[in-house]
Amino acid sequence: MKIGILGAGNIGGNLGKLWAETGHEVFFAVRSPQSDKVQAILNSITANFHTGTIEEAVTFADVILLSIHWQNVPEILTQIQDIITDKILIDSTNRMIPPPADTTGSAAGDIARLLPTAKIIKAFNTLGANNLTNLQFGAENASTFICGDDTEAKSIVTQLAQEIGFDVVDVGLLNTAPLIESLAKLWVQISRQYGRETAFKLLKR
Question: What does pTM read for this prediction?
Answer without folding.
Answer: 0.94
